[in-house]
Amino acid sequence: MSRNIIDIQHLTKRFGAFTAVDDMHLEVREGEIFGFLGPNGAGKTTTISILTTLIKPTRGTAIVDGHDIREDAIGVRSVIGVVPQSFALFPELTAEENLAYIGRLYGLSEAEIKKRSDELLETVSLSQYKDRIAGIFSSGMKQRLSLAASIISNPKILFMDEPTTGLDPQSRIAMRELTKKLNRKGMTIIYTTHDMDEAEKICDRITIMDEGCIVADGTAKELKKLGGETVIEIELAQPDEAIVVELQKLRFVTAAEREGKLILLRVKRQENIFYELSDFFRKRKRDVHEIRFKEPTLEEVFIKLTQKELRD
Q1: Domain range list for the chain
Q2: The predicted structure's pLDDT at residue 5
């Protein structure tokens, strides 16, 4: 079993009367891609800002790879990298010059800077643009350069705060693949997003936040189970309201409705349902084209847990 690389206890941040993070308890395992999922204003960025020592908590603390964020901010910064939401490097410098500047801040030798810069520019597919000033880069290129700068010191933990916001589909895919590649090499990734599809595709474990609180935590599969009822789509040759009424009377069905040639059932359980439905239609000599189970989506789970649309 991997160890806890981040341990959060009673973490709270207030701005006047507003509570941005409310008594958070959380553990992140070493080697995970761990996702914070939630709408704008949920407290994700504030949490990341506290864990990266940019702001101090009002109450509670967190241990990051053995370093207390309150007592040892320098120690925390020595083991982390950060990819911010917006471009924070120097637009007037070239890609290579930006990496060299960041490398010197970390105390790397010129030889180390040259070696790491060449490796990282190749990794993020910017080698051919190393002599171009960063200010003329596309949004995707800027984010890839930010990623290279954030890992020039080879950190144990990488914080990525909504790194694909505003990127085109190809750039989003490229950032996801780079993130997975870094994780395969052993880097722990803390990934914040308000995009549920992205969270499901990239994260090993997801925490759903809302109004500063954790409302659910688990793998995407585990979170989907919180959606409650399963939906079954039944495609019939000749559906009618009479069969819908009969289906509604089955003990495991909570709701039934017809949409064109489809009948949608909400059911309490999944065990033996396929057999029972097949038997139901066989006895009535109904021609069934297909029976499909639809598990709840992360969006449905989120709405159920928070009673709001994710992008409110």
Answers
A1: 4-220, 229-295
A2: 97
* 13-22, 234-243, 248-257: range with highest mean pLDDT: 13-22
Vertex 81: Cα angle to 142 and 310 (nearest 5) = 70
What is the distance between the alpha carbons of residues 289 and 259, in angstroms, rounded to a whole number?
Answer: 15
Residues in Cβ contact with 275 at an 8 Å cutoff, skipping those fewer than 6 apart? none
**Confidence band for 309, pLDDT divided at 50, 70 and 90:** low
pLDDT digits (tens, 9 = 90+) for 128-145: 999 999 999 999 999 999
Share of the chain above pLDDT 70, in %: 96
> Domain 4-220 sits in which CATH superfamily?
P-loop containing nucleotide triphosphate hydrolases (3.40.50.300)
Asked if 83 contacts 161 with a C-beta cutoff of 8 angstroms, the reply is yes
Backbone angles phi, psi at 160, to 5 degrees: -125, 110
Instruction: Report angle CA 182, 184, 185 to the nearest 5 degrees.
Output: 65
**Helix/strand/coil for 223:** helix
Rounded CA-CA distance 153/110 in Å is 13
Phi and psi at 60, nearest 5°, equal 80, 180
Sheet holding 18-29, edge to edge: 18-29, 4-15, 59-64, 67-68
Q: Which residue has the tokens 């891609």?
A: 33
Question: Stretch 51-57: mean pLDDT, rounded?
Answer: 96
Query: Closest by alpha carbon to 273, among 297, 291, 260, 299?
Result: 291
- Do residues 94 and 130 make contact, with C-beta atoms less than 8 angstroms apart? yes
pTM of the full structure:
0.82
Q: What is the pLDDT of residue 308?
A: 62
CA distance linking residue 159 with residue 45, whole number of Å:
10
CATH, domain 229-295, list 3.30.70.100, 3.90.320.10, 3.40.640.10, 3.40.50.1010:
3.30.70.100
